[in-house]
User: Fold these one by one.
Assistant:
Number 1:
Amino acid sequence: MAERILLSLHTRLPLPETYPDGLARSIHFAVSDGGAATPLRANYGILFAEGTLDASNVIKPKGVKNPMISRLPDGGFAITAVRTCENGSKDEESRGQFLLWRSHDLCRFTAQRLIAVPGGEYLEAARLTESEDGRYTALWQDATGRWYTACAATLDELADAEAQAADAPVSGNTVELSRAEYDALLTYWSPLTHTANDVPETITAASADELAAIRVNAVYSDGSTHGKCVDWDLSGVDFAKPGAYPIRGRMTARSFRFPLVENFADPVLFRWEGKYYFIATNDGMNDVGLYAKEADTIEGLFREDCPFHLILPYDPARHLIQTFWAPEFHVIGGELYILFAVGGEKWAPQCHLMHLKKGGSIIDENSWEDPIRVLLPNGENLTDDGISLDMTYFEAGGTPYVCWSYRFAIGTPLDSGSMLYIAKADPARPWQLASEPVLISRPMYGWENVQGTINNEGPYALVTEDTVYLTYSGGDARGYKYVLGFLTADPTADLTDPAAWTKSPTAMLAFPDVPGQYGCGHHSYFRDTDGTLYMGYHAATGYTAKIAMSSFRRVQIDWEGRPRLDLSAERDLNPALAEIRTTLIVPEA
C-alpha cells in the first residue's frame, strides 16, 4: 500500500495561563505519514484572523473556529475558517461569511478575505472548492447544524447564488500531501538542526595560523550551511616538513548562556573603533539612566569584572526623569548616535537622539551632547498626544529611514495599541524627520495582541540584497507571550508606502521555539568581525516570570535567504557531529 501523508487543521482549547484565546483560536497544522498526527511549530498557531477597527479606531481582536482545507486545481490549497470574536463568541461583523486564505505551498499565504454565502446567517463551518473550469463551490454549516452548498463563477457571486441542502463533508479539515510537499512543509515550519558537515578530504595550510583561518561548513536540515572554526589537534604535525598529515579537530561555535545579563532588557551589541559595547534598558534601576559596557572582546563584555558605566543620568533639570528605554547605537552620516526614549515629570516616554562628541568615549558621560527630542518635518514634536519609543535607523536602496512605535490613549477605552510608523531620515539632521510619519503596522493578529497587550514595538532592520526584514516585537513585553514578527519589503521600494510591506502571518519567534526561553523579544542584530550574524533579545525563564533576562544567539540564513531566529546553541552545533577528521597538506615552502 502506498504511503498516505495527511495535513490536518485544528484550533486549540484556550488555557488562560499558558495559551490564551488570542493564540488558541488560530489555525494550527499537524501532519501524519501513517502514524499519529504531529503538530507543526510545536502546536503554535500558523494562521490568525485579522482584527477589525471600531468607529473609534480601537482594535477588536478576532479568532477562528472549525478550519477546513481543500486542494485547488492548480495544485495549491484553499484554507477556510469561520471568524469569531477573540473569546470564541459569534462575530456579528462577519455574519454569513467565512475567511479564505490561498497558498501554493502551505508556507506562504495570500491575504485573508471574507467570502459571503447566501442567507446571511451565522456559520459554524465552511469549505471552498474550485472546479477545473474555475467555478467555486461553497459548503457551509449554519448555527442549527444544517449543511448547505452553492456554486458560482466568482467568489463575489456566491452570496447571490442559490443555496441547496447538502451532506456534511466526510473530513473537511484534512488534505493529502505528496512526499515533496510534506518534506517542504517540515523544512519550513520546523527548527533548523545541524545534521552533517562538509569536510574537505584535504586542507592545505603552511602554518597553524593559516589553518586556523579556514572554516568548515556545518550543514543544516534545510541544506543551508555555516562555516565553523575548528580547534585542531596538531600534535603530529610539523609545518617545517612538507607532506600529508592525518588530523582531527573539534568544530566550535560562539554561544551565549541564558540568562546572560539579568535585569536588563532590549540588548544591543555594537563595535566601534576596535572595541565592543553593550547597552540595554536598565530594569534593575527602574529604567532610570543609560548604562553601557566596554571591552576588547565580545566575551569580555560579560565578565564579572567588566563594569557598567553611567552615560546618561537622571537629571530633572534636563527633564530626564523616567523611562530611559531601548537605547540603540547607530552610525548616521558617519556620526555615532544613541536612539532611545525618555520621559520627564509626567509619564510619557518620547523618542530622543544623543550624539557622541568628536573624539569622545562611549563610556564617558561628558562625551555625549544633550539628548534632542525627535521632531516632525515642520519642527514640531514627533508627538504630544501620546508616547513614542523604540526608534531605530536603517538604510535600504540608498535611502535612510527611521521607524518607531507610537501609542495614544494608553490604558483607556480608546487605547490605540502601540503601532509602527516609518519616515525618511536626513543623516545631517537625524533628529528631524525628512518626511511625514506613515503607519505601517498595528497589532491586528492574535499573536501580537494577546489578553490586552496591544503591541507592535521594538523594530530593528536586517537588510539583505533582496529583502528588508523589519523584525519587530508583539504581545506582552514582560511575559511569555512576547514574540517577534517580520515585516518584509523590497529594499528598492519606497518604504514609506504601506503597500510595500508584507506582514508575517504568524510570529517568527515565539515561546515554544527555544526550550527554556519564554517571550523572546525586543531584539537587535549584530555581526562579528567574521560576518557572523547574531541577535540580541530579552526573555523570561518561565510562564509566570516577569524579570527581563538578556542574551544573544546566532541567526542562520536559511536556504531561501530567510533569517531563522530560533537557532539554539545545541541546534547550531550538534555535539555529536563536532569531531571531524581530514588530511592536512603542508606545501613546499
Number 2:
Amino acid sequence: MKVLVVSSAPLIPSGNRWKAYSPYVKEMEIWNKHAGELQFCSPTWETNRGLLVKTIPFSTPNNIILKDFDIKSFGQLFNAMNAAVQNSVKIFKAMRQANHIHLRCPGNIGLLGAIVQIAFPNTPKTAKYAGNWDPNSAQPWSYRLQKWILSNTFLTKNMQVLVYGEWDGSTENIKPFFTATYNESDKIPIIAKDFLGTIRFLFIGTLSHGKRPQYAIALVEQLQQMGYNVKLDYYGEGNERTVLEKIIAEKQLQTQVTLHGNMPSETIRNAYQHSHFLILPSQSEGWPKVVAEAMFWGCLPIVSPVSCVPNMLDKGERGIVLTMENGKDVQQIKNLLDNEDIYQSQVLKAEEWSRKYTLDYFEEEIEKLVHLKSLKK
C-alpha cells in the first residue's frame, strides 16, 4: 500500500538520505511500519535552519518535491500564486497514484492538499490537524479555511480528521486524537514528592513571545515573596532568553531561576521526575506535548486554557488552568501548596490519565487508520 503524505514539514537532504523534524520522523516511522510504502509530498530545505532534525530511517525513493512559499507581503503574492498552482498540479498527480492520502495540517501545503483531495472522494484519507481546533479561537483565515474544508462532509469524503480535544458541534469525520512520547515499558513508578524542601517549577519549550516565559518568573517570584522555598528551571532556547536574563539580573533571582538551554530527552525526563510543577502560559498550542509528558512523571501542569488543555486537565482536576491574571494564578498555586493532599490527588489523576496515551496505543490507532478500521472511543 502506498501512503502519500502531503505536508509543509520540510525534507532536508543528507547524503543519500533525508532528514526532517525529529518528532515528525518518529511518527512517520510508525506510519511506514504499517503502510508498506510512504511517499512524501513536501518542500525541501538545504539546511535545517536550527530545526531539531533526525534522519528518516526508512527508504523514501519517490518523494515529490514542492516549492516552499509564504505570503508576508504584497510583493510575494505573484510568486506565491505561481508556486501554489505548480504545487497543486504535483499534488494532484501524486494523489492519483496513492492508495491512501494523509494530510498534515495546518500549513500552506496542507491547505493545497485539503483543496485537491476533494477531487478524490473514493480514496481513503486521513488528516492530522496539529494546531488548535477550538472553533472560538482567533486564527489566520487560511487555518479557518482548512478546518472548514476538512469538516465539510459534502466536500471531504472518505476521510478521518484527527484533532486534539473533543469539540461540540463537530461533524462525524472529526476524531479526537493524541500524540505520545513514552512506551508502556516506561511506566515505572513516579518519584514521590512533598513540600518539605524546595518546591521545583519547570518551564520547557521555546523561549518565544508566544510561549510567555516571563509569566513563569512572575508567578515564582511572588511565591518566593510569600515565603515559599521555590526554584524555577527553564529548558529551551529562543529570542526571549535575553529578556529573561535581564529580569533575573534586575530582580536578583539567580538563586531561584536557572536557564539551562536545550537539553537531551534524558535530562528533561529527569527534570519532570524531580519537579513538582510545569508552567506553560502559552498563547497557542495544538497538543501541548510537554504537558502530557509532565503528567506522565507526576509533575503537575499549570497551563493557560488554550486548545485542548482544559480537556487534558479535566477543567482543573488534573492541574491548574491559568487565568493569566497574576494575583488569581498565584492564589491557585498557593491553595495547592497549602493543601498537599489535594496536590497529591491531582498528581495521581494526571498520571493515570497521561499513561493511557503511550506510543504502543498510538501505534495501534495508526494501524487502524492505515487499514481503515474505526478509532477507539
Number 3:
Amino acid sequence: MRIDKLLSNMGVGSRKEVKALMKKKKVFINGVAVKSPNTQVNPEKDQVICDGKVIKYQKYGYWMLHKPSGYLSATYDHHQRTVIDLLDEKIQIFEPFPVGRLDKDTEGLLLLTNDGQLAHKLLSPKNHIEKTYIAKVDQTLTSTDVEQLEQGVDIGEGVLTQPATVKVMSDEEPTVIQLTITEGKFHQVKRMFHAVDKKVTYLKRMSMGGLVLDELLTRGAYRELTQKEIEWLQEL
C-alpha cells in the first residue's frame, strides 16, 4: 500500500496534506524519513510515525448508530438525507455502509461497517439472527393476534413469516409491543401487523443478535463497537 493512501485513509489528511508533511520530514517508516508519497508500506509489519504519532492501520471499522427518523439506510441519495450524512468525515473515509436497512421513518439500532464479508453473514437467513423491535400500533392486540404473529402470518405474495416472539409491554400501554423476529424481509414488521389488521405508528429496533442499542446514544449519535461486540460479530 502507498504511504500517502494509508495516511489519508487513517484520517491524517488529504494526499496533498500528507505530501506536505513528508516535505517537512514528519513521516517515518521504521525510523526512516519518507520522501516520496508512493513509497510502499506493509500496514501489518511496518511501523509508521506521522508528526510524532504512531499510526495504526485499521482496515475495517464497525459503528453502532442510533438511526433517527427521516434518514435513508443508504450510502448516497440525490434528494434525501442518508445515514452516512450523520457521520464525521474521518469515519466516512472508511466508506462504511449500513448492514441491512431500516425504513426512513424507523429509528434505532443500525450497524455501519466496510466489512462486506461480515455484513453478508449478518444478513444471511441461514444464521437466524434475532432482531428485536419496539412497535406502537393503532389498536390493542387480541390474544388471537398474538398467537397468529407468534406462529407466522401471511404478509402477502404467499410469504409466511417464521415464528416470532410477541410481548405486550404493559397493561398501561397495551399498544406498545416488543416483537422479535429472525428474518429481514422488506417492511416485514409493518406487514406482519398489517396481517392482523393493525397499523404501526412508531417503530424502533432495539437489538440485533449480540448488539444492543446503547441507551447512552441519542438519536443521530454513534460510537465504535466495543471489542466484545466485535468478537460476537466475528464468531458468526
Number 4:
Amino acid sequence: MINAEGLTKFYGTQCAVDNISLNIRRGEIVGLLGPNGAGKTTTLRMLTGFLMPSSGSIRIKDIDIDENPLKVKGLIGYLPESAPLYNEMLAYDYLKYVAEIRGIEKGHIESRLKYVADLCGINEAMHKPIGTLSKGYKQRVGLAHAMIDDPEILILDEPTSGLDPNQIVEIRDIIREIGKEKTVILSTHILSEAEATCDRIIIINRGRIVADEGIDTIKGRMGKELLVNVSLKNALFEDVREVLSAVSGVTGITQNGVDPGILKLVVHCGSGRDLREEIYKEIKKQTWILMEFYYEVETLEKVFRDLTREN
C-alpha cells in the first residue's frame, strides 16, 4: 500500500530524516512513535506529498508520488497537528467547502457530510462556529475534513495533542473505527496512545528507524524478561561481561550510560528467573565496588527508553 525507500530530508545542513524505509500494508493502523524532534512530522509530510525529500522514493498503491502527485494526494486524508480550520465558519459550511474543493459531486456532498458527522460524532456541532468549539470537537472536525472524500489512507500527526483524557479516549475510538476500513498512520510521542490504538509500532529516533514491530510482538516480550541494573566502580565492561555471561540464564549484558568512574550495566535474564542472587555472588568474588543493584521487568516504556536513549 505504502512503500518508501531511503527517505532522507535535510534542512540546510541539519538532517531531520536519515535514510528511512517503510512498507505499510493495507488495513494496518501504524504508529510512528518517537520523542519530540525525532523526525515524525517530517516523515509524514513527505508521505503526503506536502514536502519533497532530499533523496529517496515514495510509492502509494504502486504510484510514484513524484510522477503523479495529484493522484497520490487524492488517495490520502491528512490531519496535521494543528488542523487548519476557519474559526469564523460553521462546521457544516467549512466541511461543505472542503467537499467542494476536493471535487465531490454536488449530489453526493450531503451524504458525505452526514457520514463524517456521524463517524466523528459532530452532529451537535455542525451548525456552530468552529471558533466556539472545544479543542476536542475541533479535532473531530479536522478528522471529518480528512475523511470527507473517503480516502483509502489516513495520516494523522499527533491527533490527540492537547486533549483532555476523555477527549483522548473519544478520538482513539474514532481512529479505531476508521481503521476497520482504512490504512491509518499516526504519529505520537505518547506510548499509551500507540499501545491503545495501533497494530504496529515504528519507533524513530534522531531521524532513523530503531524498531519496527507488531504491538502483539512487543507485548509478548513485556514481563518475560527480568532486567538487573548494576553500577560498578573499578570495573571494565569486557571483564564484567565475561564473568556475568557465565551465569546460567543470562541472555545478554548491555552498557547503560556512562558516569565518570562508574560502569552502568543491564543484565538481561531472558529465562524470566530471578537471577539477582547468582549475579550478586559473582560480583562479590571480584574486586569491583558495587554502587547500585536493582531489577525491573521489561515494559513498553523500558523498550522505548532503551531505543531512544542518546548515547
